[in-house]
Design a protein that fits this description.
Layout (H helix, E strand, L loop, with lengths): L1 E5 L2 H18 L4 E4 L3 H17 L7 E4 L1 E3 L10 H8 L11 E2 L8 H14 L5 E4 L21 E4 L2 H7 L12 E4 L2 H5 L3 E6 L5 H9 L17 E6 L9 H10 L12 H4 L22
Parallel strand pairs: 1-10, 2-3, 2-6, 3-5, 6-9, 9-10
Antiparallel strand pairs: 4-8, 7-8
Helix pairs in contact: 1-2
Bound molecules: 2-amino-2-deoxy-6-O-phosphono-alpha-D-glucopyranose.
Length: 291
């Protein structure tokens, strides 16, 4: 695992977007694993900017999202399909037929999960998986005690996760109780993982995920087993790491990172403004969370 700490959230999102763009340029048929959440919005805005200003080409790219809520149709405002359409798919030249999310309305959810794994395998596996992190350390919706070898399946969302995602729904009790998510094992099979975390509310869980013991209680600790995983942080999200001086030194001194020292051009950065600013709302307990 490599940890890169940038001065602020903008610089962290810039770096993430530039790495994705570099991979896509070197392999136009890239199989890209996608994540949702407020943190990722500014990365997608930058990719859209690069598409518009620099011609970044998504026409042959295939995508697989990490997860989708069970019970929400793709056109529902809170579905992850809707999120992806708004923030990326409808803003670039990707072929929608090449974009995949689990179907949260499938009548046979077990078959849907198996089918999702089959589709990923048919595309030759995921080349680059983007990841955010939940405040309980989940990747996708791999809640505490997700098996480290788990595959795509239905998970029950924890009270903390439902509370964390509640501000995006009209009412907290409308947050679904279940989601289909790639498993931890599915994620570990990706060729390269890129995790982005910014903001003070992620500092404690990032310290556990990066420098803590590997445990199924914190799915993100499984990334310590991945041979090619880069964790990109802003200063505050990295503020509880013990070895941050070492991580800073790597970015400043390793030749592989030199091309990334420059900031993204303002044109590409401002191609599209993220619609929502990352939320910094306190986590509240949802009353019916344990129903
Ligand atoms: C949801 C998604 C996760 C994502 C997390 C972080 O729970 N299922 O994949 O990592 O949100 O969201 P945010 O970036 O808003 O903190």
């Amino acid at each position: 695992m490599e940890v890169i700490i940038r001065p602020n959230a903008d610089a962290a999102a810039d770096l993430m977007a530039r790495i994705i763009a570099k991979e896509l340029r070197s392999n136009p048929r890239l199989v890209l694993g996608l994540a949702t959440g407020c943190t990722m919005e500014s990365v997608y805005a930058r990719l859209v900017g690069m598409h518009r200003e620099e011609g970044l080409d998504f026409s042959c790219c295939r995508t697989f999202n990490l997860d989708e809520y069970v019970g929400l149709p793709g056109n529902h405002h809170n579905s992850y399909r809707h999120y992806m359409n708004q923030h990326l798919f409808l803003q670039v030249n990707i072929d929608l037929k090449n974009t995949h999310l689990p179907d949260g309305l499938a009548t046979d959810l077990v078959a849907e999960c198996a089918n999702y794994e089959r589709l990923i395998a048919e595309c030759g596996g995921i080349d680059l998986q983007l990841l955010g992190i939940g405040q309980n350390g989940h990747l996708g919706f791999n809640e505490p005690l997700s098996a480290l070898r788990s595959r795509t399946r239905v998970k029950i969302l924890s009270p903390m996760t439902r509370a964390q995602n509640a501000p995006l729904f009209p009412k907290p009790d409308q947050v679904p109780h279940r989601a289909i998510t790639m498993g931890v094992g599915t994620i570990l099979d990706c060729r390269r993982c890129l995790l982005l975390a910014t903001g003070e509310e992620k500092a404690a869980i990032i310290a556990k995920a990066v420098e803590g013991h590997i445990t199924s209680m914190v799915s993100a600790t499984a990334l310590q087993l991945h041979p090619e995983c880069t964790v990109i942080l802003d200063e505050v999200a990295g503020s509880q790491l013990k070895e941050s001086d070492y991580y800073h030194w790597i970015f400043e001194n390793q030749p592989e990172w030199e091309p990334f020292h420059e900031a993204l051009s303002p044109l590409a950065k401002n191609g599209v403004q993220a619609k929502h600013q990352p939320k910094k709302q306190p986590v509240e307990v949802i009353s019916d969370a344990l129903e």
